[in-house]
Amino acid sequence: MQRPRLARAGPHVNAGRNSVKVIASTLRKGNVVEKDGKLYVILFAENIHPGKGTPVTQLDMRRITDGVKVSERYRTTEQVERAFVEDREHTFLYSDGEGFHFMNPENYEQIAVPQDVVGDAAPYLQEGMAVMLSSHNGVPLTIELPQRVTLEVAETEPVLKGQTASSSYKPATLSNGVRTTVPPHIAAGTRVVVMTADGAYVERAKD
Known about the structure:
Blueprint: E1 19-23, E2 32-35, E3 38-48, E4 56-63, E5 69-75, E6 79-83, E7 86-96, E8 99-103, E9 110-113, H1 115-118, E10 130-136, E11 139-144, E12 148-156, E13 170-174, E14 179-182, E15 191-195, E16 201-204
Antiparallel strand pairs: 1-6, 2-3, 2-6, 3-4, 4-5, 7-8, 7-10, 8-9, 10-11, 12-13, 12-15, 13-14, 15-16
């Protein structure tokens, strides 16, 4: 899995706060910004270019200290303090009441990541799966899953004689509980490859 690039320090770096000034339009999901002395992780970022008026960047963010979610809108050229984040590959081990446990394969240190950080990624986590874990000063902020994962179809409509792959897709439930749609020739018990971003069907698994 490709490692996300860290922002490189430029002339605007404030060494004491370990951050760098960037223009709002360059911010992406998973980045961490500093606002009014507090750190926020970006959940969603969108650059909006209206027909008339000034282009803006819409940011949905979660405050790291207490989990409160806020929405902010900046001019796309406005400068924002972006904090440096450490990206390291971790291996998923298991989940319990304390959260989701991951291990750093380089030094075998383990870390428990809270449910609100894992979020929608939780159903796709599989024992031994390699993910990219982003943290700031040792505090986990976001995880990035592999783009695709193989799962079994738990429930779907039966295959009818004469249906072809070109027919419209039918609803299905995967073994992790996620709902998706699959081609009509896919039966329950079939292993399929899906996108972790939205559960969309890609292809029948080759294993």
